[in-house]
Design goal:
Blueprint lengths: L1 E7 L37 E5 L33 E8 L6 H11 L5 H13 L15 H6 L6 E6 L3 E7 L7 H8 L4 E7 L4 H6 L4 H12 L3 E7 L10 H17 L4 H4 E5 L25 H7 L12 E9 L3 E6 L5 E2 L3 E5 L3 E10 L2 E3 L1 E2 L4 E7 L11 E3 L6 E12 L8 E2 L3 E6 L2 E14 L20 E2 L4 E14 L10 E6 L2 E10 L11
Parallel strand pairs: 1-2, 3-5, 3-6, 6-7, 7-8
Antiparallel strand pairs: 4-5, 9-10, 9-17, 10-16, 11-15, 12-13, 12-17, 13-14, 13-16, 18-23, 18-25, 19-22, 20-21, 20-24, 21-23, 24-25
Helix pairs in contact: 4-6
The structure holds guanosine-5'-triphosphate (GTP) and magnesium ion.
Length: 526
């Protein structure tokens, strides 16, 4: 079932920070196989869902559909739908063609009619951005269209034979890495878009390019599988050259391995032209490219295997945004468990007792939502002002912990000029939807990754306790924040236990939570 109506959905809001680069080469430790998806899904329908022309990142306006005409909506029963649902984030260097590919997907799946495309062609031409018309499907605000750069994470939906997808179109520009982090943290799989155009692959891949930073962040944030699309294969400097394709794949493989991806199991490469729509919905036309015998993008997406999540696990939904609409609505990705109408839950860290009075998936009301769904949950028992992004909707029994300090294993990527990483180092912590100032208060142990000595509290001989560490080091340290944050040990709950540290807009470290204070305490005892 396809629609071509547009509904308004909020862009994700983060104040853009000036970002620079990193050149991270995390080892296997960022890997985990616990990332997964839901097979449960309760609605169908491909609906282009944009913040139509929304220029700022204000909290979501209630849409007509979600709001006043609520009663007219059909409540979709869980038994009706068998298609699985996956969130797919489009990542990669600026101008690689992420929005163009996303727009093309919507066009190929029949959600954008020719008239709209013609309108975008004209608008793009008027802005002297002729070739951007496909990207205009995803880039909906004026600033994005003028500059030809995505700022907010664009959202849209489409379906293949077996799967419903939510596309999250991340910005590639280094200034908007925090927005990219927000998009990637909601995704199960990623489409890494790489431009094959002469010079463009090189700029994206070299130090300072976002290809590297995005891959590393995606891995840290839980993007379990990557589809690497080598894009712009139609471009005059490429002309579907197999040599160019092989060159890029050859350079990407070792880098992806060093970022923690198991290339054989978790990564798939394919050539496309996002602008022309080649090798996307249908297999490669041999008259365009004779050497590609592999699948097209829709096939790869449709068949991608992602481990199942446990729908019976405890409820964990990091809150990304909230608004008022005849009640308090919170939005986020349900990382674990199932939410049903009528459930009593906690909003953590304040242990606010709330009741679920409505659930919607992509503007459709449902009675329950399973893990990996992007949901909007209407709550009673709490005011919108009492909720902040980063709070977690949690089951009452076995609720998520809230702490002001934790121990983490950190991999230092690249510190700012002359900085040393030592006790007293301050940075911005990004962990699920939390963004919080933090301070490193103690370096506990430097880890020798060659020996792969993962941190074992029972280990008799601890590693060396360093005074400071340098770029590339892996170190266990204690981190403090001023406000209570809801986190989990990575080994218990990877989605709520991995994070990045950023300083002055640059990712300086990636890490995982290895220990938290005992239940009932917010701090470790002295
Ligand atoms: P950011 O959002 O700023 O990170 O960029 P993006 O990755 O979304 O790139 P976008 O889709 O805006 O495209 C950038 C430019 O590349 C536009 O001029 C597109 O027309 C062009 N482009 C994208 N895909 C293709 C392609 O397959 N072939 C050719 N020839 N050009 C492409
Ligand atoms: Mg874009």
């Amino acid at each position: 079932m396809e629609h071509n109506e547009q509904a308004d959905a909020p862009p994700f809001s983060h104040a853009p920070l000036p970002a620079e680069q990193d050149d991270g080469a995390a080892d296997d430790w960022t890997r985990d196989d616990a990332d997964s998806m839901a097979v449960d899904s309760y609605h169908s329908g491909a609906l282009a869902e944009h913040a139509a022309e929304a220029v700022d990142a204000a909290p979501p306006a209630p849409s007509a559909e979600a709001g006043t005409h609520e009663d007219a909506q059909m409540v979709v029963d869980e038994e009706e739908e068998t298609k699985r649902h996956l969130n797919v984030v489009f990542i990669g260097h600026v101008d690689a063609g992420k929005s163009t590919a996303g727009g093309q997907i919507l066009f190929l799946s029949g959600q954008v009619d020719d008239r709209t495309i013609q309108k975008y062609e004209k608008e793009a031409k008027d802005k002297s951005r002729e070739s951007w018309y496909m990207a205009y499907i995803m880039d909906t605000n004026e600033e994005e269209r003028l500059k030809g750069k995505t700022v907010e994470v664009g959202r849209a939906h489409f379906e293949t034979e077996n799967t419903r997808f939510t596309i999250l179109d991340a910005p590639g520009h280094k200034s908007y890495v925090p927005n990219m982090i927000s998009g990637a943290s909601q995704a199960d799989i990623g489409v890494l878009v790489i431009s094959a155009r002469k010079g463009e692959f090189e700029t994206g891949y070299e130090r300072g390019g976002q290809t590297r930073e995005h891959v590393l962040l995606a891995k840290t944030l839980g993007v379990a599988k990557l589809i690497v699309v080598i894009n712009k294969m139609d471009e005059p400097t490429v002309q579907w050259s197999k040599e160019r394709y092989d060159e890029i794949e050859g350079k990407m493989v070792p880098f992806l391995k060093s970022s923690g991806y198991n290339v054989k199991k978790d990564v798939q490469f394919l050539p496309i032209s996002g602008l022309c729509g080649t090798n996307m919905k249908t297999r490669m036309d041999k008259s365009i490219c004779s050497w590609w015998d592999g699948p097209c993008l829709f096939e790869v997406l449709d068949h991608i295997e992602v481990p199942l999540r446990d729908p019976n696990g405890p409820v964990r939904m990091p809150i990304i945004d909230k608004y008022k609409d005849m009640g308090t609505i919170v939005m986020g990705k349900l990382e674990s468990g199932t939410i049903r109408e009528g459930d009593s839950l906690f909003v953590m860290p304040n242990k606010s007792n709330v009741k679920v009075i409505g659930i919607s998936l992509d503007e459709k009301k449902v009675r329950r939502a399973g893990p990996a769904e992007n949901v909007r949950v209407k709550l009673s028992g709490i005011e919108e002002e009492d909720i902040m992004a980063g709070f977690v909707l949690s089951s009452i029994a076995n609720h998520v912990g809230a702490f002001t300090e934790f121990n983490a294993q950190l991999q230092i990527l690249e510190l700012l000029d002359n900085a040393i990483f030592t006790a007293g180092y301050k940075a911005v912590l990004h962990i699920h939807s939390v963004v919080e100032e933090c301070e490193i208060v103690d370096l506990i142990e430097e880890v020798d990754m060659k020996k792969k000595n993962e941190i074992d509290p029972k280990k008799k001989k601890p590693g060396r306790k360093p005074l400071f560490v340098k770029n590339g080091a892996v170190v266990v340290c204690r981190i403090q924040v001023n406000n209570l944050i809801c986190i989990e040990k990575f080994s218990d709950f990877p989605q709520l236990g991995r994070f990045t540290l950023r300083t002055e807009g640059k990712t300086v470290a990636v890490g995982k939570v290895v220990d938290v204070p005992p239940i009932g305490s917010t701090k470790f005892s002295a």
